[in-house]
């Protein structure tokens, strides 16, 4: 893996970041906030990584999924309490505050979407 800036991935990263911020600001409940946002966040992380490196798609996707699962499972052990961040709105937003199996499913579907798109992209080349 070497560092290399990719404008296309960076454009998608920026767009997804704006969408995630809008979801966080304007939606407080519901499917979009709690599930679709989790689906998008793994795609956001993937596009961020691919914006600055030429890591292989499968390796980047697996890294993102492992990171997302790790954060989710740390919620089982009250990570915010351990870090003394329970009262921090930003920490709750970034790290989450409760474990949900549905989040793991959303992360997995997001990574599968990434891999499908990458496969389609390379098969057209």
Question: What does this protein look like?
Answer:
The protein has 6 helices and no strands. The chain has helices at residues 7-26, 31-52, 57-76, 79-82, 89-95, 101-124. With 125 residues, it is mainly α. The longest helix has 24 residues, at 101-124. The chain has one domain (7-124). The model has no long low-confidence stretch (mean pLDDT 94).
Outline:
The chain has 125 residues and is mainly α.
Chain-wise SSE layout:
Elements: H1 7-26, H2 31-52, H3 57-76, H4 79-82, H5 89-95, H6 101-124
Helix pairs in contact: 1-2, 2-3, 2-6, 3-6
Helix percentage range: over 70%
Query: Which residues form runs of ≥5 with pLDDT under 50?
Result: none
Rg computed from alpha carbons, rounded to a whole number of angstroms: 15 Å
Please state the overall shape, judged from the principal axes of the Cα atoms. globular
Termini, distance in Å?
21 Å
Strand percentage lies at under 5%
Mean pLDDT: 94
How many individual domains?
1
Would you tell me the structural class of the helices and strands?
mainly alpha
Q: Keyphrases for this structure?
A:
125 residues, mainly alpha, 6 helices, 78% helix, globular, transmembrane helix, membrane, DUF2809 domain-containing protein, DUF2809
């Amino acid at each position: 893996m070497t560092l290399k800036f990719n404008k296309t991935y960076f454009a998608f990263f920026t767009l997804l970041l704006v969408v995630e911020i809008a979801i966080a600001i304007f939606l407080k409940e519901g499917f979009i906030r709690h599930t679709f946002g989790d689906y998008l966040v793994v795609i956001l992380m993937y596009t961020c990584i691919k914006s600055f490196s030429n890591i292989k798609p499968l390796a980047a996707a697996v890294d993102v999924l492992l990171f997302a699962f790790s954060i989710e499972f740390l919620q089982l052990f009250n990570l915010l309490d351990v870090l003394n961040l329970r009262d921090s709105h930003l920490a709750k937003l970034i790290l989450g505050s409760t474990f949900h199996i549905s989040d793991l499913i959303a992360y997995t579907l997001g990574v599968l979407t990434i891999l499908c798109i990458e496969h389609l992209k390379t098969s057209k080349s």
